[in-house]
């Protein structure tokens, strides 16, 4: 992994935007933040927020609505997405870990892989914890893990100083071609460690999360606790939409004129009452408590951790922010530990 | 890579087979080697273009021409629309999916318990046993709400010639056996305790049958169930068919009972009385 010194991240951004369609998180005028395209001519300073954008990179690869095939009345035609080379600029470690998790889950999914393989990922180390994040206890951050990104931006400790840039993959190294960069100062690993220690201290020990995971896997949480949590679930799908590792979907079939038809798939949510409803009327997860339990078992269950070699939760804290019933990750884990 | 685009499937014919179900003859256009290797207990995904897609089990497995049969119960939008399709319609097919039944035909007696439409996934096993040299080694107890709710009429007529085949009814007519299959287990066990149970039907019936067999000395690792779960992708991705950490479309639909209990997160069998045994 080669380390470079970068006078201005905007120079790298313009270089990459000249090769590919580049997306960066930008503030809107209403206090929100969104992924937006940025051209190679763009003059805005790269000023990443220490707060995560409301939406992760999930929908870039796992489309919220995706055409699967068309039928013309006689034949079926598969529909793969039209992709253009793209780059996501400034992804935080947790969101990159989530992409790595989804890469495994969707390893055989042609639609996901078509989009993913056309994408260069530029990560960004965090100097401070976001509000409510706990990546440091799950091992998903705050330093970007080399195997999850192509390039890694290391912000300077003081304003005005040079940035660091790590080439973490062959594709990342190749994308730098033509950009004249000096090697980084030798102290960059120490700086990364200092950043990590600072974020870890800001996030604290997160006892509820650690104890909650243990209790969940010991099956030490009784049904009444889950049902009490379920009472607060409105089935709104907020958590499953913002969660960077949620991946459930449903098909949507539609007839088109002349005997034609198509199938799309759309994001679904395991917290919807009818998610497992069978045609016979039987519903194996009929209560909201069972569905809430399912969601958290999927994030923290040991069987899933073994399968993916990491938890399904990356500690981004988005569900805490979005849940109207206060049963995001900290809400649930607190109740589970102190019922 | 997974291709979720269906292949062409031709509807050859359909006939009434039970009061709310029909028996379909279907043909896969250009069957692949994997179609011809399908096993009893596996399933396929049937698409009715513009309407939807749903899982169904093979009653008879695809032959060299890709022809097979399936039993479909009217349950909702897709199945109703399927009943309305004329012969010659072009449908969509994906499959085969999941794991079939373990097939061990030896000198040991085997018990099949089926409820309602749950007879369909077991048809391949019964058919094979009825052709073995010692067919009487496999016994069937088949429960239905009443005789109109029974399925696979032609097949049953054939099997009854070669196998011990007990039929039970929730609402029995004179001369019929009253009660659920559980009431008739002792009779089968008295004739020779089975070495294994294969069971398919509504989940409460399967649990109750498994427990009744456990109580009669059969080990949990000799009991197999075929589970129904809502399924949409059959590729282990859409998430709908979960059973604990397992996806029924990939790991099932047949599960050994001890594994099933483990996935439910229970160390001991569930012993609550089933509310209703039949769909
Ligand atoms: C492995 C496997 C094998 C199977 N084999 C067979 C077989 O051989 N033969 C057979 O007849 N059936 C079989 N089934 C069941 C079959 O797949 C269903 O009966 C079929 O999907 C019904 O489709 P439908 O469109 O007609 O019903 P739908 O219209 O989809 O549903 C009917 C009812 O289901 C419920 N429902 C559906 N969607 C929702 C929702 N989003 N929210 C709430 N409730 C909902 C409602 O109560 C609705 O009225 C099998 C199932 C599995 C999993
Ligand atoms: S469960 Fe919550 S905290 Fe964990 S990754 Fe999903 S949204 Fe983020
Ligand atoms: S049917 Fe989609 S995961 Fe099993």
From TrEMBL, chain A:
Keyword set, alphabetical order: Iron, Iron-sulfur, Metal-binding
Source species, domain of life: Bacteria
UniProt key word Aminoacyl-tRNA synthetase: no
Residue ranges of the TM segments: none
Ranges for domain 4Fe-4S ferredoxin-type: 222-254, 304-332
Molecular function GO terms recorded: iron-sulfur cluster binding; metal ion binding
Record's keyword annotation contains Cytoplasm: no
PANTHER family: ANAEROBIC SULFITE REDUCTASE SUBUNIT A
Protein name: 4Fe-4S ferredoxin-type domain-containing protein
From TrEMBL, chain B:
Domain of life: Bacteria
Protein name stated in the entry: Oxidoreductase
Cofactor: FAD; [2Fe-2S] cluster
Organism per entry: Pseudomonas xionganensis
Keyword Hydrolase set for record: no
Xref: PROSITE patterns: FAD_FR
Leader peptide range in chain numbering: none
Keywords: 2Fe-2S, FAD, Flavoprotein, Iron, Iron-sulfur, Metal-binding
Cofactor remark from the record: Binds 1 FAD per subunit. Binds 1 [2Fe-2S] cluster per subunit.
SUPFAM superfamilies tied to this protein: Ferredoxin reductase-like, C-terminal NADP-linked domain (SSF52343), Riboflavin synthase domain-like (SSF63380)
């Amino acid at each position: 992994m080669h380390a470079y010194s970068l006078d201005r991240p905007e120079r790298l951004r313009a270089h990459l935007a000249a090769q590919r369609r580049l997306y960066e998180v930008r503030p809107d005028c209403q206090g929100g933040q969104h992924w937006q395209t940025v051209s190679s001519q763009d003059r805005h300073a790269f000023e990443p927020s220490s707060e995560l954008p409301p939406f992760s990179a999930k929908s870039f690869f796992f489309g919220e609505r995706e055409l699967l095939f068309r039928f013309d009345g006689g034949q079926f035609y598969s529909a793969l997405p039209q992709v253009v080379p793209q780059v996501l600029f400034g992804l935080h470690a947790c969101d990159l870990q989530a992409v790595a998790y989804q890469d495994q889950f969707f390893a055989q999914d042609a639609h996901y892989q078509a989009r993913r393989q056309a994408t260069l990922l530029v990560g960004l180390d965090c100097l401070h914890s976001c509000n409510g994040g706990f990546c440091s206890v799950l091992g998903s951050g705050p330093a970007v893990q080399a195997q999850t990104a192509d390039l890694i931006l290391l912000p300077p400790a003081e304003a005005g100083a040079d940035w660091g840039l790590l080439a973490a993959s062959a594709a990342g190294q190749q994308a730098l071609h033509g950009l004249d960069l000096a090697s980084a100062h030798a102290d960059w690993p120490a700086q990364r460690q200092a950043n990590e220690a600072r974020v870890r201290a800001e996030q604290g020990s997160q006892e509820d999360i650690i104890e909650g995971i243990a209790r969940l896997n010991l099956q030490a949480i009784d049904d009444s606790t889950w049902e009490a949590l379920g009472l607060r679930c409105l089935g709104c799908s907020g958590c499953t939409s913002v969660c960077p590792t949620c991946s459930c979907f449903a098909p949507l079939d539609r007839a088109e004129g002349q005997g034609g038809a198509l199938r799309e798939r759309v994001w679904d949510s395991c917290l919807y009452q009818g998610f497992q409803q069978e045609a016979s009327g039987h519903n194996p997860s009929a209560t909201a408590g069972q569905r809430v339990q399912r969601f958290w078992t999927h994030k923290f269950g040991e069987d899933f951790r073994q399968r993916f070699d990491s938890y399904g939760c990356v500690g981004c804290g988005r569900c805490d922010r979005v849940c109207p019933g206060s049963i995001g990750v900290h809400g649930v884990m607190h109740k589970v530990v102190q019922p | 890579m997974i291709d979720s685009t269906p292949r062409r499937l031709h509807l050859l014919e359909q006939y009434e087979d039970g009061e709310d179900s029909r028996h379909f003859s279907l043909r896969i256009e250009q069957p692949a080697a994997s179609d011809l290797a399908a096993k009893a207990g596996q399933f396929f995904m049937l698409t009715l273009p513009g309407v939807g897609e749903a899982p169904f089990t093979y009653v008879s497995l695809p032959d060299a021409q890709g022809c097979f049969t399936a039993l479909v119960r009217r349950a909702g939008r897709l199945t109703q629309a399927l009943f309305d399709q004329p012969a010659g319609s072009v449908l969509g097919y994906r499959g085969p999916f999941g794991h079939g039944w373990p097939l061990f035909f030896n000198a040991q007696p085997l018990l099949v318990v089926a409820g309602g439409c749950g007879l369909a996934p077991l048809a391949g096993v019964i058919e094979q046993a009825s052709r073995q040299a010692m067919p009487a080694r496999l016994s069937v107890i088949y429960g239905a709400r009443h005789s109109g709710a029974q399925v696979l009429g032609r097949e049953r007529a054939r099997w009854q010639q070669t196998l011990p085949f007990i039929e039970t009814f929730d609402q029995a007519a004179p001369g019929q056996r009253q009660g659920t299959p559980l009431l008739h287990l002792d009779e089968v066990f008295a004739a020779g305790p089975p070495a294994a149970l294969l069971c398919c039907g509504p989940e409460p019936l399967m649990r109750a049958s498994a427990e009744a067999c456990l109580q009669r000395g059969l080990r949990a690792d000799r009991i197999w169930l075929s589970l129904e779960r809502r399924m949409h992708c059959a590729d282990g991705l859409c998430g709908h068919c979960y059973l604990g950490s397992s996806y029924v479309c990939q790991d099932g639909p047949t599960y050994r009972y001890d594994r099933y209990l483990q996935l439910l997160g229970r160390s001991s069998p569930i012993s609550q009385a089933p509310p209703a045994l039949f769909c």
